[in-house]
Amino acid sequence: LLDRLQAEEALSRRKRLMEMIIAVGPRAAPAIAEVAQDPRWFVVRNAMLLLRRLNARDSVELVAAGAEHKDPRVVAEAVRTLAAFGDPRWLQGLARLLGAGVEGQREAVAVARRLRSPQIGALLATRIAAMKAGDLRLEENLELIEVAGLHGGAEVSAELLRLAGLSQGEGPFRLTGAWAGGARAAGRGPEGA
pLDDT per residue over 161-177, tens digit each? Predict the structure, then answer.
């Protein structure tokens, strides 16, 4: 099944093959771990997903290695899996994605939309604080600001207030979703308040 999955081009058939592998259960984990050594990014990404779906926590070191992969799509899947396993290294992987260019940041934002942790808000606020004013208008940064607003926290509130104080020449023009998220974050105030 794993060999067929690696060769299959049709998404619907790949999904069906993955479901069949998951139906095998934990016995499939050792074979999946072998496949995770493949040089093709999509094979490794699928292995990370399958290990998560199988709850193969004994593969956590392999998944942590996936969080160091050169392809951001693999790193994102490894971060999701580490988070699902309760392994704290997921946050390091997310930080790595944020620093991996536009593609890495897009993957990080997609991951951050689905995970909930106060640490994510703080990490995203740090990233926003490091942005140059002109970069705030870029679509990928607007998405990051919006997701930060959804996570909230004291750090996010402070950054959103800083952004609100920028002149129109410095700040983003279109932040409708981000401002809504920011309003929710600012309304919650600092953690524990």
Answer: 777 666 555 555 444 55
